[in-house]
Amino acid sequence: MLDDKKVPVPGSFAEGAHVTAEEYEERYARSIADPEAFWAEEGKRLDWIEPYTRVKNCNFDLGSVSINWFEDGILNVAANCVDRHLETRGEQTAIIWEPDEPGDAARHITYNELHEQVCRFANVLKSQGVAKGDRVIIYLPMIPEAAYAMLACARIGAVHSVVFAGFSPDALANRINDCGAKAVITADSAPRGGKRTGLKSNTDAALLHCSDKVRCLVVKHTGDQTTWIDGRDVDVLSMMEDVAPDCDPEPMGAEDPLFILYTSGSTGKPKGVVHSSGGYLVYCAMTHELVFDYHAGDVYWCTADVGWVTGHSYILYGPLANGATTLMFEGVPTYPDAGRFWAICEKHDVAQFYTAPTAIRALMGHGREPVERYDLSSLKVLGTVGEPINPEAWNWYNEVVGKGERPIVDTWWQTETGGHLLTPLPGATPLKPGSATRPFFGIEPIVLDPQSGAEIEETECEGVLCIKASWPGQMRTVWGDHERFEKTYFSDYKGYYFSGDGCRRDADGYYWITGRVDDVINVSGHRMGTAEVESALVAHRDVAEAAVVGYPHDIKGQGIYAYVTLMNGVEPTDDLRAELEKWVRTEIGPIAKPDLLQWAPGLPKTRSGKIMRRILRKIAEDDAGSLGDTSTLADPDVVDDLVENRMNRK
Ligand code: 6R9
C-alpha cells in the first residue's frame, strides 16, 4: 500500500499558488461551518444583472428533494464568459484551436472575436425561431463553432444538450426526442485521427425518427458533400455573415437550466442531467482557478471532448468565466503519432494539462521517446480525471511528462456534480499517487456502511461515498423525471447525495476511489474492487490495459474474469498468461488471481474513455446474445473479437 508515501508540494510552487496548505485548512473549515457566508462571497466571482439575496435553499429529503443556489439572482452565463472580459482583455486569445491535421494552421480566437461569433450565432438561432427555454442539440466535432453554439444558446437562454460526435444516429434521435429539441446543430463531417465521420448523414438518419419540425443547422467544416433538405437544413456559416454582430444577452434566473447532458447510469436509458446557470458557473469558475492554479496569461488545455461534462466545465465554462486562454483540440493523442499531445504542449506553451488515465496508459505503451522529443518546460500543473489512476501510470505521468516537478491533480467528480469534489490543490496538498486526496471547499464527503447505511465515524474506513450537503455545482434534476433523480441519488442512503462510488479513507483523511459500487465483486466471500485487480495487472511491464469483471462461479460465487491488452509488440502466449496470473497472486494475494484471462486487442470504451463493463460482464457470463445497446461505443468492432474469443463457454 502506498498510503504512507506522500509527495510534497514542490517548494517553489507553493509560493505563488492561489491556495497554500494553511489557507486550505482555514478556508475549508469556514466553508463547512458557514456555507451561506462562504458561498455568498464566492458568488461574487460572477457579474450579476440582479444580485442574489438568498444563497442556499436545498433539501435532500426523499420526496421533496430540491436544490437552489443564489435563487433570486439574475445573470447571463455567456455575458460572464465573454462580455465582461472585453474591456480588460478583448485582444487576448480566448480559444486556441488545434486542428486534427498538424500541418493545418491553428486558430487563435480573441475575446473580441469570440463575442462577435457568439452574437452572430445567437442571431442565427433566433432567426430559426429558437427562444428562451427551448432545447437545442449540439452534435459537432471539436471545433470553435461548438463553443460558439453553446455560448449562443446560453446568450439567448436556450438550453443546450451536447451529444458526443461519436454517438450513433439512434443515440442522437433518443436525445433529440427526450428533451424535445427544437433544433440540431451539426457539421458536414468530423475529422479525427485522419478519419472522417459523417455527422450530417448521421443527423439525417436520426431525424427520420423525430418530429419534422426539428430544424437542422449545419456548419460546413470539411466541405464534404452532404444531402440537403431545403426548408429544414440551414447553412450556419453563411447565415452568420448576414445577421447582426450584436445580440443582447437574455437575463436569466440563477436556477434556469443552462444545459442538459445525457449520461448512462447502471440501469435504464441515459439520464438527462440538468445543470443550472448561476450555481454551476460559480462552481466551475472557482474550481478551475484553484484546482489548476490558473493565473492570467497561462495557456490551459483540457483534452476532453465537449460532449463530456469535463469539456463543458473545464474547456468552456470554467476557463472562459475566468478570462483564461483555453485550448481546444480536434484530434486524438496518437495521430499522426504518439507525440501529438506533447507537440501541442510545446507549440502553444501549455501551462496546465488535464487528461484521462486511459490516455496516459495508452501513451505509456509507446515509451518515453515521443515525450522526450518535445520541450515541456512550460508545464506547471498536470491533471487527471475519469477513473482511478493506477500508481504506475501516475509515476510515468509524474516522471516522464512532469519531470518529477509538477503537481498532479487527480480530480474526482461526476457529470452530476458539475465540478471537482475531491481533488488536491496544487500549492496546498501533498499527493499520494492514486488518491484524489481531499475535499474541495464546501464539500463534506462521508463514508457509509453499505449494509447498514450508517455513517462511519472512524477516519480509516471503507464504504460507499456520499456527500452530506449540497454545493452550487450539483445537478438539479433529471430532465423530465424528477422522481428518477430522487430515486437514483437520494433513496438508498436517506438525506445524502449518493455518488455510486465506493471509497476508502486512510489515516490521513485521504480518499481513494475504489470504483463504482456496482463493480464490486465478491469472490469466496471476499469483497474486491475490480479496479484493484486491474491496477495489479497494469503494473506488469507487458500490460497496457486491463478490465476485470465478475462472472458466476459454481464454487466461489463469483469468479474473476480479466481482459488484458498487451503493450505494442508483446506476443500473447500461454507462458505470459501463467506469468500474469502468478503476478496478480503476488501483487494482491491468491484470492485475486484471475480465473479466466482473455487477450483483448481492444476494450469496449465510451467516447469519454470509460470501459463499458456491462458489455464485458455479458461476455464473461457467456451471454453475448443480450449485449444491449452498443451504440455509444467508440469502436463497436472490438466487441466482436471479444465475443469470438470468449473464455467461458457453457
Ligand atoms: C468527470 C467524470 C463519473 C465517474 C465517477 C467515478 C469515475 C471520475 C475519477 C473517477 C476515480 C477520479 N471517476 N473521476 N474515479 N478517480 N479522479 O468523469 O464524469 O463521466 O460522469 O463519470 O467516473 O466512478 O463516479 P462522469
Automatic annotation (TrEMBL):
- Which of the residues bear the PTM N6-acetyllysine? K610
Q: Which residues form the Acetyl-coenzyme A synthetase N-terminal domain?
A: 24-81
Q: How is it modified after translation?
A: Acetylated. Deacetylation by the SIR2-homolog deacetylase activates the enzyme.
Catalytic activity line of the entry: acetate + ATP + CoA = acetyl-CoA + AMP + diphosphate
Per UniProt, residues of the AMP-binding enzyme C-terminal domain are 532-610
Q: What class of enzyme is it?
A: ligase
Which Pfam family is one of those matched by this entry? Answer: AMP-binding_C
One GO MF annotation is: acetate-CoA ligase activity
Question: Binding positions for CoA?
Answer: R192, G193, G194, K195, T310, S524, R585
Q: Does the keyword Metal-binding apply?
A: yes
List residues binding Mg(2+).
V538, H540, V543
CC cofactor: Mg(2+)
| Residues that, per the record, bind ATP | G386, E387, P388, D410, T411, W412, W413, Q414, T415, D501, R516, R527
| Gene3D superfamilies assigned | 3.30.300.30, N-terminal domain of ligase-like
Family (UniProt): Belongs to the ATP-dependent AMP-binding enzyme family.
The name of this protein is Acetyl-coenzyme A synthetase
Q: Which organism is it from?
A: Tropicimonas omnivorans
